[in-house]
Amino acid sequence: MAIVRLQKLTFCGLISEKSFILEELQKLGGAHLIALKDDGSASAEIAYSKLVENVCKALKYLKRCAHKRLQVHDAENFDLDSVVKAVLDIQADRRKLFDKRDALLKRIQEIEPWGDFRLPEEEIMRGLKLWFYIVPEQLMKRMWAADLIWQVVHKDNLYSYIVVIADQEPPASIMPVARTHAGKVPLSRLKSQLNHIELTLQDLQAERESLTRWIDLIEANLAEVADKCNLLVAHSLTLDRDDIFIIQAWAPETELATFGQFAIQHQLALVAADPEAGEMPPTLLKNPESLAGGQEIISFYQTPGYFDWDPSVAVFFSFALFFAMILSDAGYAALFMLLLAGKWRALGQSEAGLRLRMLAVVTLGASLVWGIIIGSYFGYSPPTNSVWGTLKLLDLNDFDAMMRLSIFVGVVHIALANIVMAYQRRSKRTALAPLGWLAVVIGGFLVWQASSQQNDTVQQIGYGALAAGGLCLLMFSSERAIVKPLDWFWVFLDGLKSLTGLTEIFGNVLSYLRLFALGLAGASLALTFNRFAEQAYHAMPGVGLLLSILILLFGHVLNLALCLMSGVLHGLRLNFIEFYKWSVSDEGYPFKPFSKKGVYRD
Predict the structure, then answer these.
(1) I need a labelling partner for 249 at 20 to 30 A (CA). Which of 103, 342, 355, 506 fits?
(2) Per-residue model confidence (pLDDT) at position 602
(3) What is the rounded CA–CA span in Å between residue 533 and residue 521?
(4) pTM for the full model?
């Protein structure tokens, strides 16, 4: 449950052996390479990552093909680059043709009522032109009143299709509608173009189906392509001088012996050093596999800095609790468990899937327990004298108690964040500032509780905590060095500035009311659909049963989707917005090991 300590390794070897050394280092794995020059290394990484991305796009496009050919496993006539290029060309061509086809279909639909016609030559018309209008039947009176030469060429129940003959476009003031642009291309030619596009699309689809025979070989070579690209990027990261090259990398402190043996084996000079002041190493998180699901959650939001702390375990359990309180239904939790059981084996096929699977088990287990505690099963509450009724300890409709519980959860969560922040700053004077916020948030909660319960003792303790917290914030929020008496004045001003965060921290605590509000909303919606179904059943005997079943299915599926989105989004939001604000100070970047992704064959 910590950020792995890293060492900066500097390898030095002969330039003639550079390619071999980098290949061996990639086979060894476990090192995060450092760019020693800026000239082209970043652009090279982007270019090579684009190659891998293209292979993935081509593979995904072929896999989406409905009809696939028998797979070829003999790589003798297989050229990955040409196959990928052909697939991507087909995809781009089909996309363009589909756009053209849609435009043609729309155009044909617009001019089909006018029939298949060709505009006459200008010499024949002697300066006159044809102007096309689609006039609703209720506006035809205005058309008859217009002093123009016109003819109805087509008519349906709603519109009259009119052609006006004039040397200039009739004024908009006398026409009932705006002019329609019929165009110069005849309907027959448009249909011919459409037919040609349809045939071309069929040919491209046939080519796509033909290329599906290479899916297995593309998958087999995907890791090799990624390895080659990473190796090429590594070549661009080294510092080359005369007959030697230098490569630097971050590596776990526990792996120093392994890299030392690697340097001896390949006759390399190796220097290992701790991170220097001002350096920001990558962040490598290490947690027990059963709790590593928190790493997957925080990885897509913000990786903590190397000198910060690992919040993944705290996020793991707090997300599970928040999701459970937002879902607030044991029936929904049990249904999600059944869905998880169906995906159990599929999730176990990757490391990330295994981690998320364990996170889902803990989250749904907490949701089931919470649903039993509040006594909600698909919106129904069991009788008080039943077995399940005796397990009901809290009433979701007790607004006062549930609001207090939600605020208490928020206070504990933000208090934990400030405790962690104080520990992170334990060697600095400013470590007392997070403790000040801790006292403020606890004191405010105690004052609020005591005011409703008329408990003077608790209220005095709360006011004392608020005063102590405010004093800590005033005196210890500044990082200014105190050399002369005037510095205390600036420290005091910095403290006053920090006190402006009072409204923010209390606003953050109140944000946890969403746990109760969303849980109540989901329960109320489930109960509403249950009542609708019951009313339909009693109102229409016979057919009412079918109607009530449909209402229940539609209503609970809709509510289930809303609860799932709310639980995920707001469960993450309370961690990443409120909790991160008070506990994580630095943003880092992830540790990316330079290693082979495929299976090495000697």
Answers:
(1) 355
(2) 34
(3) 18
(4) 0.76
